[in-house]
Amino acid sequence: MMGSEIARGEFGIAGVARRTIVRGEGAYVWDATGGKYVDLGASLGVANLGHSHPRIVEAIQRQAGELVFVSSGYTTRPRIDFVDRLLSLMPPRLARVFLSNSGTEAMETAIKLARSATGRTEFVAMMRGFHGRTMGALSATWRSDLRRPFEPLVPGFAHVPLNDIAKLEAMVTDRTAGVIVELVQGEGGIHVADPEFIRAARTACDAHGAKLIFDEIQTGMGRTGRRWAFERYGIHPDILALAKSLAGGIPIGATVTTTDVEAKFQGTLHSTFGGNPIACAAGVAALDVLVNERIDERAERLGNAGRERLREFANPKIREVRGLGMMIGIELRERAAPYLEELRRRGYLASAAGPEVLRLLPPIPIAEADWDSALATIDEVLRDGR
């Protein structure tokens, strides 16, 4: 395929040819042949604020000219500013932060905090949930095809169906350290947690002394129509994992928790590159963009309109449209892969969330004309049967 390459010597996901992307701006990316695409999910939720947002680029460039790295034995002004800015956007009870480099690291930290604060080792996570690929985060992840090659994993993890209150209540006991929930399951097919289920999870954790952990790695930063998805539910977690678009595309992870959890924590946490000056400078700029450009409000408006339009199409290939904000899953009656390829040929890069689900995670500042055109093209591609 023109514009597709395999990086020589790269190990892991590079077993198949991938397109070489050379530039991004707003909701667009360009490949090595000059092909221009609308990003409908190529960034997997990292580009919530758009590719190469000018405010974030300027912050990175400025910081790179001043200080790239110093060990965590010292602090830096960007680190102080980022923690202050992040906590200013949290409810008062979420008042402590540990900084790392990725979503999976944020989840590893969440698991450690819950274990240490409770003195327990058992967790309840959700079927279809995805939390990362390190050994602890992978243990919380449900998919057996991801888990099996690396077993035995960390013991003590059980899984229940999202939104099944009875099974959740039966599983949470006085041995449970934490309950782990994605408020919208990203990799698992864009399944949305019911408010009643989240209230039941909060009640069960409180009754048994367990910690409620929200994985907002993909749902944070305005993606679901709120700055943080938990705001929609009116339920606060004890531990919150953030990453992906938190620094506008620069790798960062943050685990936010309460002073009570911190006070009971035994042990140490450390990340060499966690909270580095460039990531934190980018993070401050990203949080400013989130607030000043009202990213969450735009996601709510465009996302609601998009889901309504997809349903109005009444396309026979579509089984269900679901999601929150601009986190949309289109469940098909057949496999999604051929339609993803046809969309690519027509200039749109989307992704899958399971074999039969088209996942839409566009940059939230996408032009309304591009969003309308993308939805119409999806309907057309599905009706063409390609």
Task: Write up this protein.
This protein is α/β, with parallel strands linked by helices. It has two domains: 4-53 and 294-384, Aspartate Aminotransferase, domain 1 (Alpha-Beta Complex), CATH 3.90.1150; 55-292, Type I PLP-dependent aspartate aminotransferase-like (Major domain) (Aspartate Aminotransferase, domain 2, 3-Layer(aba) Sandwich), CATH 3.40.640.10. It is built from 13 helices and 19 strands. The chain has helices at 54-64, 77-88, 103-118, 135-140, 144-147, 165-171, 195-208, 230-233, 259-264, 277-292, 295-312, 337-345, 368-384, and strands spanning 4-5, 18-19, 21-25, 28-31, 36-39, 96-100, 122-126, 157-160, 176-181, 184-185, 191-192, 211-215, 239-242, 253-257, 318-324, 327-332, 348-349, 351-352, 357-360. A seven-stranded mixed sheet has the order 6-14-13-12-9-7-8, sandwiched between helices. A four-stranded mixed sheet has the order 3-4-5-17. A four-stranded antiparallel sheet has the order 15-16-19-18, with helices on one face. α1 (54-64) runs antiparallel to α10, α2 packs parallel to α10 (277-292) and α11 runs parallel beside α13. The longest helix is centred in the C-terminal third of the chain and has 18 residues, at 295-312.
